[in-house]
Amino acid sequence: MAFDALETAVQLVAALRAPVGQVAQHDGDLASQIRRAASSVALNLGEGQRRSGKDRLHHFRIAAGSAAEVGVALRVAVAWGFAEHPALVEAQGLLDRVLAMGWRLTHPRP
Q1: How many C-beta atoms surround the C-beta of residue 36 within 10 A?
Q2: In principle, which of 30, 40, 60, 68 could form an S-S bond with 105, CB 3.0–4.6 Å?
Q3: Model confidence pLDDT, tens digit, residues 11-34
Q4: What is the distance between the alpha carbons of residues 102 and 10, in angstroms, rounded to a whole number?
Q5: Are 99 and 67 in contact (CB under 8 A)?
Q6: Is 61 exposed, middle or buried (0-12, 13-18, 19+ CB in 10 A)?
Q7: Among residues 64, 70, 67, which one has the least CA distance to residue 83?
């Protein structure tokens, strides 16, 4: 599942390219924060995939937190009028998948 989550996170980054470009025209700091958080999702999933024990879970938790940050940042961008919801449909769908996978990775069944 971690590999699927990583691939979905990379797809999320690609889907965010255009919307984040729109946000950057209005608020460079917010655009940068979205980029950093989305990159953190993929990077921490990739690193966690190669770790074990609590260290692995730690990276998955960071990825899940960063995914939540992306979601809130996109809501803020829409609220400010820097991006429109229709432009975010693909990214939001991928983000929802990453968040669901992140939940499963951070709450493993006993």
Answers
A1: 14
A2: 60
A3: 999 999 999 999 999 999 999 999
A4: 14
A5: yes
A6: middle
A7: 70
